[in-house]
Amino acid sequence: MTAKDRSGLLLEVGELVQALQQHSVDVDSVLGELTESARQSIPGAQYAGITVATRNGKVRTAAATGPYPVLLDEIQQRHCEGPCLSAAWEHHMIRINDIAREQRWPSYCRDALKETPIRSIMSFQLFADHHTMGALNVYAEKPDVFDDDAVELGLIMATHTALAWNLVRRDEQFRSALASRDIIGQAKGMIMERFKVDAVQAFELLKRLSQSSNTPLADVARELVESEHPHK
């Protein structure tokens, strides 16, 4: 890939991230486009995907080009091992030159060879916290496909994808906070009207109900509202 091609790629990815910052496009569409850009831009890549996993062993595919990234994530969950999980939790980047020769993750490699034509894999960490991790992955059906240039471009794509993913998570947290504030407000209004108390007293009652039942405040509020309006 020439310097001009690389500049064009960075411009394209930057536009996607900017669009996501402005909330003008669908989140799944942006992640899908970033994944497709990785497939098209990294030399030798035939498929790409984004893997998301939790500490309790759940693995899901957030975006994928073709069926094999999804199937390989299912194999990782089946055995609780694999390059995408290791890249996400332990390393910034992992490269498999040939699954048939790979000594790490023996159960994963065995099933990957048996169930898919994939031979070469690169996985890049997107984020990892105490509960959740993410990795950008590219795959090829031939062995020894990904060279150092492919690694460099993969790191560039992973950096931009990580930025987009952080924006996605921030937006989801913001929307969740707004929804919680709205439902708590409804519950406060119901308590104020029924028991003729002010807003401070109503909120204090909600807090006590939350503490005594060891239930999040928003969940207590939601239960109250739904009990008043069971049809909703």
UniProtKB/TrEMBL annotation:
<feature type="domain" description="ANTAR">
    <location>
        <begin position="164"/>
        <end position="225"/>
    </location>
</feature>
<keyword id="KW-0808">Transferase</keyword>
<keyword id="KW-0804">Transcription</keyword>
<dbReference type="Pfam" id="PF13185">
    <property type="entry name" value="GAF_2"/>
</dbReference>
<dbReference type="InterPro" id="IPR029016">
    <property type="entry name" value="GAF-like_dom_sf"/>
</dbReference>
<keyword id="KW-0805">Transcription regulation</keyword>
<dbReference type="GO" id="GO:0003723">
    <property type="term" value="F:RNA binding"/>
</dbReference>
<dbReference type="Pfam" id="PF03861">
    <property type="entry name" value="ANTAR"/>
</dbReference>
<dbReference type="GO" id="GO:0016301">
    <property type="term" value="F:kinase activity"/>
</dbReference>
<dbReference type="InterPro" id="IPR012074">
    <property type="entry name" value="GAF_ANTAR"/>
</dbReference>
<dbReference type="InterPro" id="IPR036388">
    <property type="entry name" value="WH-like_DNA-bd_sf"/>
</dbReference>
<dbReference type="InterPro" id="IPR011006">
    <property type="entry name" value="CheY-like_superfamily"/>
</dbReference>
<dbReference type="InterPro" id="IPR003018">
    <property type="entry name" value="GAF"/>
</dbReference>
<keyword id="KW-0418">Kinase</keyword>
<protein>
    <submittedName>
        <fullName>Response regulator receiver protein</fullName>
    </submittedName>
</protein>
<dbReference type="InterPro" id="IPR005561">
    <property type="entry name" value="ANTAR"/>
</dbReference>
